[in-house]
Design a protein that fits this description.
By secondary structure, this protein is an all-beta fold. It is about 0% helix and about 50% strand.
Length: about 130
């Protein structure tokens, strides 16, 4: 079993920054990856960013590329999502997710992930 706990959400004005954290505990897998997804009211859960734990390879959606950065701290078993230049359309519940052994081609899809956190709200005001 894997447990994921997100933190760091909140309210910020457009142009501001937030950093989300996701602490992973429990079983680890050699080919695991961590992902961030978000879901706004009435919309599908969408991919934001992902990171292959062993290699550090990162993936981003086009909508956040250049503004968001995903990173990890191995010692703390934590993944971060640094969000800069936030826009009102970034407002959503952000979820951390962990895959077991999904290939790179599946890391941008929610179906590539097996474990999910409870979500943290991000609200960007204009």
């Amino acid at each position: 079993q894997v447990a994921l706990v997100e933190s760091g959400g909140g309210g910020v004005q457009a142009g501001g920054s937030l950093r989300l954290s996701c602490v992973r505990s429990g079983r680890t897998f050699s080919r695991s990856a961590m992902g961030w997804f978000r879901q706004a009211p009435g919309q599908e859960r969408e991919f934001v960013a992902a990171l292959r734990w062993s290699s550090g390879t990162t993936f981003y959606s086009d909508s956040v590329k250049g503004r968001f950065t995903i990173s990890k701290d191995d010692a703390k078993n934590t993944v971060y999502l640094q969000m800069n230049s936030l826009k009102p359309e970034d407002s959503a519940v952000y979820y951390c997710a962990s895959s077991i052994d999904a290939p790179d081609s599946q890391l941008t899809s929610r179906w590539g992930y097996f474990y999910w956190g409870q979500g943290t709200q991000v609200t960007v005001s204009s």
